[in-house]
Amino acid sequence: MALHNVWIATASDGLVRADQIVGIGTHQTPRLAGKPAHWLFYVNVAVPAGSGTPGGWDVGILNRTIVQCSQQPTEAPVQLAQLLSHLDATGAAGLVEARYSGPRGNGGDTAEVDLGFTPFPVLAAQSRIHAVQPQPPADRT
What we know:
Helix content is 13%, strand content 46%. By secondary structure, the protein is mainly beta. It has a 4-stranded mixed beta sheet with strand order 2-1-6-7, covered by helices on one side. Strands 3-4-5 form a 3-stranded antiparallel beta sheet.
């Protein structure tokens, strides 16, 4: 993927550059005392993440949550993959954002996640590049 100019907003970790993503998925968090379980829609980033234990070092993949839902966002991973594929094909530059918009359908057993893309504004060449004009070499005669 050549998505080095596309960024994805995460729920709490800032932005992730889209060309660093190696996986997209969902999983349910455990139910805790007094708190219901939630579903996380996340991306896997191509960097190792690890932690030390007395038995050694445990290295795993790094997940970044895009949005948290009360129901499983079953269609969100495919929708994000399709969007990224389209943005890659068009050479886009901008920000992808996801928003949980509530239960999907009549049964409400899956979540609706809206994905949006905001292109970066195009800046005039003068405001982006402040090039110094080359000077001819000094005459040393």
